[in-house]
Amino acid sequence: MPLSRQRTINKPVSVEGRGLFSGVASRLEFRPAPTDSGLVFVRGDSSAPVRILTDIANLANRDRRTSLANSSWTVETVEHVLAAVYGLQIDNLFIEVSGEETPDADGSSLLFVEALQSAGIAEQDAERDTFVISEPVAVAQDDASLAALPGSPDCLDILYDLDYSAVPSIGRQVFTFRLGRDDFAATLAAARTFLLAAEAEELQARGWGRHLSTSDILVMAADGPIDNKLRFPDEHVRHKICDLIGDLALLGRPLCGRIVATKSGHDLNQMLIRKISEQLIAQDHAQSMAGEPIMDIRSIMRLLPHRYPFLMVDRILEIEGDRKAVAVKNVSINEPFFQGHYPGQPIMPGVMILESMAQLSGILLSQRLEHTGKVAVLLSMDRVKMRRPVRPGDQLIIQAEMLHVRTRTGHCRCRASVADELAAEAEIKFMLVDAEPA
């Protein structure tokens, strides 16, 4: 039977080891988390613990691995950790890491699966928010491809076709796995990452994995593994599915349907997840628009001092505590800035899109500052990117995610979209100052 309730673990549990790429000793602790928390990495070595939500929006650009970033803080090589968590169908966890890279024993998920199983998995009193694939999504890169297709509404069928015909010791391997039905711990967890001998030499020449020998990690020659033995005859394709499952955790919720993969790796996995995420956001917004708003314009005006023509948020669709908010700005030809920007070619100024993000961030911060006597004053905008023009008739969907709030500063990541197409993104920082007496 498919799981219907969210899950976490019964008690904290930790593992230790060295980072797969860096070789630096690291400690990782899994801790239970409340319902709807998601999978949250915590950099425990910072002066104030930095939280990084497992989400495609927090993906860092890395070669040959999956890493997450929050401003200047990162957690490297998270895919084997996330494969264990997602493969065991755990929804809510705090994952504290003592350094920049997660520990890794042998390039598999087994270390983490065994730790989580020893902690015990606990069902929680909240429904799982599963996304069922309803429309096909596909991505391709050279001769590799990856597609998400409609299928079972209560599990995820994965078919992976691995073709290393040029390497006789690997050859072509095809494997299927049903996430939600098959036993991840017995079937996939022990499958290790693998390299060709030339790849291993190249990576060590770049300074990666210098602490590893061929007995520590699976290095393939033409006639078989070097100084090592396979755990499964088809260990290579099993590990590729394990990596894919770890990357799917970036979606932020369970996925049901069917995935067909041919030669895909982390880059293609992440491209697919971005596309599925766009579908998910569009569906969530459509559902939100069909119901009553969380906060209408009268409530917004009680929180924000802005007034016409500078109030850039029309209604709030969703607020998750002080962690995340989603809002709407309806863009009308009657907006005064269209008179001069530009006559005959009306485009919403980028600074006004940024202003709408800042106003939503202010509303989100107000959830935390309500009883503190502090107000948020705009300090800076970083990583600002304009992705597409916004025109009259468009409906701007704005998202603000709280990265952290400290004694004197607040930091939010924001995105603005039209339908399922990203229009702008930015990170916005605020200075928290004492409110002036009325």
Give the tags:
alpha+beta, six-stranded mixed beta sheet, 22% helix
The chain-level mean pLDDT equals 90
Q: Could you tell me how far the N terminus lies from the C terminus, measured between alpha carbons in angstroms?
A: 59 Å
Cα radius of gyration in angstroms: 23 Å
The spatial strand order of the largest sheet comes to 5-4-9-3-2-10
Please describe the topology of this protein:
Elements: E1 5-9, E2 13-19, E3 25-32, E4 39-43, E5 50-53, E6 59-60, E7 67-70, E8 73-75, H1 79-87, E9 93-97, E10 103-104, H2 110-119, E11 121-127, E12 131-132, E13 137-141, E14 144-149, E15 156-164, E16 171-179, H3 184-187, E17 194-196, H4 197-205, E18 218-221, E19 224-225, H5 235-248, E20 255-262, H6 266-290, H7 297-303, E21 315-320, E22 324-330, H8 350-369, E23 374-386, E24 395-405, E25 409-418, E26 421-434
Parallel strand pairs: 4-9, 12-20, 15-20, 17-18
Antiparallel strand pairs: 1-11, 2-3, 2-10, 3-9, 4-5, 6-7, 7-8, 13-14, 14-20, 15-16, 18-19, 21-22, 22-24, 23-26, 24-25, 25-26
Helix pairs in contact: 1-2, 1-5, 5-6
